[in-house]
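Methods, example record. To illustrate the input and output format used throughout this study, we show the complete record for LemA family protein. The sequence lines were provided to the predictor; the line carrying structure tokens was produced by it.
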Amino acid sequence: MALVLLLSGCGINNIPTYDEKVTAAWSQVENQYQRRADLIPNLVETVKGFAAQEQETLTAVIEARSKATSIQVDESILDNPKKLQQFQQAQGELSSALSRLMAVSERYPDLKSNQNFLALQSQLEGTENRIAVARRDFIQAVERYNTELRTFPGKIWHSILYSDLKPRANFEATTENADEAPAVEF
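The corresponding predicted structure is encoded as:
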């Protein structure tokens, strides 16, 4: 009985607990990406009605959404940094296409005044914020998990009981020059 009490308070369950938190945090990132992908067809249809001349931008959004949703995502993506980067890059391309679409709305006053477009634009902005929060939570979960694998006593438990669990790759920006503030010109 004393051994069970001793082991229960020494962090023996931290590694699988943190591993599950990483998986759950990644699921939330995917959930937010899916929310965005579900909103885009509605946004595109609304914009088509008001800005048919911007077909190139709309086509770019549709293609980027298609590419972003065509990548098969499952739990194995977390263990494959290359697949994770490809997924992130496709999501970055979609974000870029959506930015161009928002710029289109600035050029067309009728589009800006349309309540449906404004509602969808607000939903997309909220979704982008949710994605950022989900990414932050994922980064924190990976940090905690990887730290547990590298520090005492987690390092001991990892080598004895959980040697099949590997450190997880963290989220990385895939958009070129993402570390620089964008220049806004009017």
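Annotations derived from this record:
The chain is about 75% helix and 0% strand.
The helical segments are 2-8, 14-50, 55-70, 81-107, 109-113, 115-150, 154-160.
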